[in-house]
Amino acid sequence: MLESVGALTGSPWIYAMVATSVLFDVFLPVLPSGVLVIMAATAAAAGTGAATGKVPHDVPDILVLTLCATTASILGDLVAYRLAWRGGDRLDRALARSPRLSLAQERLGAALARGGGALVVLARFAPAGRSVVSLGAGAARRRARDFLPWSALAGLSWATYSVALGYFGAHWLGTTWLATGVSALALFGAGALATFVMRRA
Prior knowledge:
Largest sheet: none
Number of helices: 9
Radius of gyration: 18 Å
Structural class: mainly alpha
Shape: elongated
Order of helices and strands: HHHHHHHHH
Helix content: over 70%
Mean pLDDT: 78
Low-confidence stretches: 49-60
């Protein structure tokens, strides 16, 4: 089945699928965008000869995949941020009803106010963290220049990590479902670690 995904990797459709999934998972965190990125990177690695130990000659596919996932992540954050900015009192009341969202919004505000955006980067890896941070920044009327650079760094970090997992997983374990599964577990592990660190902060 990975071969069929590999066939898509060489066409624009795989990039469209990745972009759509990453763009919308800020609103639907259940979308498996990370797993899709890993599968695409694993299949792309098969096409570059990574699994056979040969020097890859088709690396731009990996770079395009990373750029595609990064750009979609930033755009999704921006859309959520702007919608929350315009949400007004209704969104503020919705956030206030959830102690978790209220706490996350307060932490985000404090982090951005002191010039640190590590929370934004960490949240990109945590389950639903991206949604909370993007919506929280917009609802709190945080300045775009304080939020978007960190959103861009978060998107690039997440995309690079996800693509690297798929690519090097294929290199070490072959282009099999085992490689994809191990890589997905590593992605979920990073999410769990990010959640733990955010709660301890």
